[in-house]
């Protein structure tokens, strides 16, 4: 069995990694792999392991987080484990010790293909359908701006889609004489049939593109992507659906082919814990040629997924660090990670919902098909911005305030390193705010 001492011996001291990296580039993380393998041999159903605090204490030691604060905004951008940080630093050091044109273009650059192959295998697609990008915004904008449209065409999205992506659609409408339709969904939505009906009703004969969130960032709502993609494919000769997977990939278990979509964009620095500034774009192979890249590529690259990676000079360290993050994710186990995130969400949500004041309102479903680790809570009578500021300034607990036209609240996103003691501190602080105000 994996003991705390053995686990700490590899993960808890980043300085040790730095020393090893200087003499043996692969040794630091190479020593971590056997321990992650031992995590994989821990017995029990995912729901049982989700409640094993000793197991998750050990996982938490892989991170270098400051425990004087409680980070419940991992949905914005997550810290990376120490092994990922050190792998990135090692490659950055190498890029500056060797002449950069050699290090970046001849040695490190080709290694991206190994990362591409591993990402494709993990989520069930062809490596020639995966581009490694800088974030989900870049991935999604490639698709939103890269499909040919003509004046009068309509674009469809939801009022809860990510604001940057909606802004992208609106700018394209202003430039090209297009029209944008936005539909409203229930908050929370616990009837997939109703969701599909709402999308069906919003499609018109002029609809030529749909932006769809796999998991809505402000509430954690999971939408029935496959059903909406199938619906769109049968309308207007086939309406392309661009799926925003920023909060879904590595958060809960699925494979991209299960969704049936042609375009899928992700930030890997959220739930995969990859280096900051890394993302993924999936484009179905027969759709690559018809999608223009954001930055110009040669005609001979028309059918090549790598045309979407043409961004000029860029660091190799960030992108190659994705490989270590994927190893860490697989070492924990996707199903156990999903169960743990849902367990943490339920822990704080159910406690606050049971508060005798009756002032707690949850904007996220607690039913498994419709949500996972993200939850948004409103305390009636307390302004979300003021409560967020009070939690941070007085209790050193980081959350994010959501102010939407249709609701308000605090979005709470724990992670695999979050301890139950930290969940208790958050709940206690909110209960104090309910009782005494902020």
Explain the overall architecture:
The chain has 438 residues and is an alpha/beta fold. The protein has 17 helices and 13 strands. It has a seven-stranded mixed beta sheet with strand order 2-8-7-6-5-3-4, sandwiched between helices. Helix 12 (225-233) links the parallel strand 5 and strand 6 (241-244). Helix 9 (136-146) runs parallel beside helix 10 (163-176). The longest helix has 20 residues, at 334-353. The N and C termini lie far apart (46 Å). The relative contact order is 0.15. Mean pLDDT is 92; it is low at 1-29.
Structure keywords:
438 residues, alpha/beta, seven-stranded mixed β-sheet, four-stranded antiparallel β-sheet, 17 helices, 45% helix, globular, disordered N terminus
Detail the topology: elements first, then pairings.
Blueprint: H1 4-11, H2 14-23, H3 27-40, H4 46-49, H5 53-60, E1 70-71, H6 82-97, H7 100-108, H8 112-122, E2 130-133, H9 136-146, E3 154-158, H10 163-176, E4 179-183, H11 192-202, E5 207-213, H12 225-233, E6 241-244, H13 256-259, E7 263-267, E8 279-283, H14 316-332, H15 334-353, E9 360-362, E10 375-379, H16 384-395, E11 397-398, E12 400-404, E13 407-412, H17 420-436
Parallel strand pairs: 1-11, 3-4, 3-5, 5-6, 6-7
Antiparallel strand pairs: 2-8, 7-8, 9-10, 10-13, 12-13
Helix pairs in contact: 1-3, 2-6, 3-14, 6-7, 6-14, 8-14, 9-10, 15-17
In short:
It is built from 17 helices and 13 strands. It is an alpha/beta fold. Helix 6 packs across helix 7, helix 6 runs antiparallel to helix 14 and helix 8 packs parallel to helix 14.
């Amino acid at each position: 069995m994996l003991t705390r001492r053995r686990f700490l011996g590899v993960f808890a001291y980043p300085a040790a990694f730095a020393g090893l990296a200087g003499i043996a580039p692969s040794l630091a993380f190479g020593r971590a792999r056997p321990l992650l393998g031992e995590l994989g041999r821990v017995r029990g159903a995912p729901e049982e392991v989700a409640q094993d605090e000793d197991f998750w204490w050990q996982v938490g030691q892989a991170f270098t987080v400051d425990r004087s604060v409680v980070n419940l905004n991992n949905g914005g951008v997550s810290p990376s484990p120490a092994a990922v940080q050190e792998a990135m630093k090692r490659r950055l050091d190498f890029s500056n010790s060797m002449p950069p044109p050699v290090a970046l273009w001849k040695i490190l650059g080709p290694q991206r293909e190994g990362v591409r192959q591993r990402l494709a295998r993990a989520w069930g697609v062809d490596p020639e359908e995966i581009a490694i990008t800088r974030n989900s915004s870049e991935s999604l904008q490639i698709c939103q701006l890269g499909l040919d449209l003509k004046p009068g065409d309509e674009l469809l999205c939801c009022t809860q889609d990510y604001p940057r992506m909606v802004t992208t659609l609106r700018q394209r409408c202003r430039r090209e004489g297009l029209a944008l339709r936005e539909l409203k969904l229930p908050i929370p939505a616990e009837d997939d049939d109703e969701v599909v009906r709402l999308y069906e009703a919003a499609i018109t004969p002029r609809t030529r593109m749909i932006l769809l969130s796999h998991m809505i960032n402000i509430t954690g709502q999971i939408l029935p992507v496959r059903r909406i993609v199938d619906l769109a494919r049968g309308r207007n000769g086939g309406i392309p659906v661009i799926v925003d997977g920023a909060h879904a990939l590595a958060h809960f278990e699925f494979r991209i082919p299960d969704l049936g979509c042609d375009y899928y964009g992700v930030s890997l620095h959220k739930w995969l814990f990859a280096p900051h500034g890394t993302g993924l774009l999936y484009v179905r192979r027969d759709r690559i040629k018809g999608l223009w890249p954001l930055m110009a590529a040669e005609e001979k690259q028309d059918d090549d997924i790598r045309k979407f990676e043409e961004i000029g000079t860029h660091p190799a360290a960030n992108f190659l660090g994705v490989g270590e993050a994927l190893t860490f994710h697989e070492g924990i186990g996707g199903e156990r990670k999903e169960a743990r995130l849902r367990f943490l969400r339920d822990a704080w949500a159910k406690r606050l919902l049971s508060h005798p004041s009756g002032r707690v309102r949850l904007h996220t479903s607690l039913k498994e098909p419709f949500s996972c680790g993200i939850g948004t809570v409103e305390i009636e009578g307390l302004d979300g911005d003021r409560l967020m500021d009070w939690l941070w300034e007085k209790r050193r607990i980081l959350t994010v305030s959501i102010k939407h036209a249709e609701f308000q609240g605090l979005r709470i996103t724990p992670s695999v390193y979050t301890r139950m003691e930290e969940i208790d501190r958050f709940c206690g602080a909110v209960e104090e705010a309910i009782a005494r105000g902020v």
